[in-house]
Structures are given as structure tokens and as C-alpha cells.
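Hello,

Our lab assistant flagged a job as stuck in the queue for most of the afternoon. It eventually completed. Since we weren't sure the result was trustworthy after the delay, we are filing this so someone can double-check. Below is the sequence as submitted and the structure that was eventually returned. Let us know if re-running is recommended.
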Amino acid sequence: MHRKKLLQIAIGVAVAIVVILPLGVLAYVKSGIYSVAASSPHTKFTEWITHETMIHSVRTHASSIEAPAKFSPAEVRRGFCAYELHCVACHGASAVARQLWVSGMEPSPPYLLDVTQRFEPRELFWIAKNGIKMTGMPAWRNSMSDGQLWDLVAFLETMPKMNSLDYVQWRQAGVCAVISERPTPAPHSIPHP
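-- returned structure --
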């Protein structure tokens, strides 16, 4: 008799999981109760689950990428120009604020001054190349070569070591204008997936 009761409970739980739970989720989604407005932040649970999913996804997908052993000063300068063109508006830099419109994004794009403490170079390359869904972070794979993406990583690796005014001084010195007058360098010969 006791065994029959346990079997009934197990069947009830299984039905709840297989039928009732998905119907409840569907009803919640269709109800429109959840606010998707970017003007209000995610719940702590939503923020945690999406952030953890992103971190583990990046680590898994970037694990087979081989990063260059070191970066040259020329790669860092070209990476600065790529950052200036594509990244600084959303992510800012030391002594450079993000654009005001960025404050309306949810989740808010992070400042990248400490990004090298959170991600390895191959992971930064993967993020820049593929973007991150539902964050506003675009995939640059169609508009930047692998060589340009590695240049960007070179700059990200250097940025934490820079004096807080170096970025502004590089801007004022016209570093990117000098680089753009030269022929575009060939992409790295390092094979990347």
C-alpha cells in the first residue's frame, strides 16, 4: 500500500513537471506581466542567470582559440583605433565617459578597464568576434578581420596598464590619423577558428 502511494505521488510530480509547469511558464510569457522595458533593471535572478550563462558560454566556445604569445606596440596602437571607433562610445575608457545614450541600455555595457582580470585574451577575441545576445554587444566578425580583432584584444590587454590620461593624449595626438595614412596591415597569420 505504501509503495502504491509513493508511485501516485511520483506520477503526480511528473505530470506537474511535464504538463503544468510548462503551461504555467507559457501563461506567464503570454500574459505580458514581465516588463521588458530597458528603463528598469533586470531582477537579481535574471541578472545572475544571464551573466553566469554568458561567462560559461564564452569560456567553452573560446577554449580552442590560440591567442598570440605577445602583442607588438603597432598592434596596440591599431587596437586603440579600433576601440576608439567601435567600443569607446558604449564602454568608455580611463578618463573618457561613455556616451549619455548608453545609460538607457539594459544591461548597461561594462567599463572594460578591468576586463583582462575577468577574461583571457582568447575569450575577449571570441566576445568581440561573436558578440553577446540580448546585451547590445554586436558581433564584429562581419566588419573586422581576425587581425583587427586581435589588435583590439592587444589594446584591451594594455589599457589597464595605461596612465589614466594616456587614452586622451593618444586621441589628441592623432594616433589613428597617422595609422590610417599607412596601408592596412595584413591579418595575423595565426590560425583562428
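-- support follow-up --
The delay was a queue issue, not a problem with the job. The result is valid. The two ends are 60 Å apart (CA to CA). The chain has two domains: 1-34, 44-180.
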